[in-house]
């Protein structure tokens, strides 16, 4: 179209571009011609939150004060167990001859190993008439143990033993004996089980009979400090 190397004049270029421009749509605007520069938001420095004197005082009162009372614990209802009237004095006044002694499985077995007669050994320890008591769950434990404890089962079926019925389910004797002496303070518990003795020591006013040096001894019974019982 042009033979020389000079560019066409500017007015001619505008006419050519206007001739080849597409028809403008209705409602369409060319924002490339009207849009200005984007505005940038001003940048601010990140400021640290200032700790006020009220916050420091509140922190000292709530966290750093070890003597502060916990109000949530005070609002909880107190569950205080009823104390037996037999424990009005320093020792259990409900205990007295003839003594009723709850016997468990291992106490009968250790008595056989040490060649001790239960009723005679208890009377030698306490210097009073004693009535051995055995519960249904202890009898069930002896029956479950089989032929190895057949002699202990024969001794437990002695008519001199008082049989106490159980109302709970199962044959676990430790829980039965702890619940029984917690409700009724008229028993002495005869056992050689360490765990059971540890649980019985938490129940006030319940003496514990055990075997030591091939004879019976008792703890937590002030009247029995004479004889074979240990002195406190």
TrEMBL record:
The keyword DNA-binding does not apply. Keywords: Nucleus, Ribosome biogenesis, rRNA processing. It comes from the Eukaryota. This is PIN domain-containing protein. GO terms for biological process: ribosomal small subunit biogenesis; rRNA processing. It is found in: Nucleus, Nucleolus. Residues 99-198 form the PIN domain. GO terms for cellular component: nucleolus. The keyword rRNA processing applies. Belongs to the UTP23/FCF1 family. FCF1 subfamily. InterPro entries: Fcf1/UTP23, Fcf1_PIN, PIN-like_dom_sf, PIN_dom. Its main location: nucleus. SUPFAM superfamilies: PIN domain-like.
């Amino acid at each position: 179209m042009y033979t020389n190397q000079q560019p066409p004049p500017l007015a001619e270029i505008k006419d050519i571009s206007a001739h080849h421009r597409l028809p403008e749509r209705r409602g369409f605007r060319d924002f490339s011609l009207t849009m200005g520069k984007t505005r940038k938001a001003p940048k601010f420095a990140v400021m640290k939150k200032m700790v006020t004197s009220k916050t420091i005082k509140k922190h000292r009162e709530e966290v750093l004060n070890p003597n502060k009372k916990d109000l949530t614990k005070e609002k909880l209802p107190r569950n205080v167990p009823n104390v037996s009237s037999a424990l009005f004095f320093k020792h259990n006044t409900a205990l007295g001859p003839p003594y009723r002694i709850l016997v468990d499985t291992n106490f009968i077995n250790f008595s056989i190993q040490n060649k001790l007669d239960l009723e005679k050994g208890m009377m030698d320890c306490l210097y009073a008439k004693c009535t051995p008591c055995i519960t249904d769950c202890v009898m069930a434990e002896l029956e479950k143990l089989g032929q190895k404890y057949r002699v202990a089962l024969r001794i437990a079926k002695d008519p001199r033993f008082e049989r106490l019925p159980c109302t709970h389910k199962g044959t676990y004797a430790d829980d039965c004996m702890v619940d029984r002496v917690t409700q009724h303070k008229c028993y002495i518990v005869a056992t050689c089980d360490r765990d059971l003795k540890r649980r019985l020591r938490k129940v006030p006013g319940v003496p514990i009979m055990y075997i030591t040096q091939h004879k019976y001894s008792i703890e937590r019974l002030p009247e029995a400090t004479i004889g074979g019982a240990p002195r406190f």
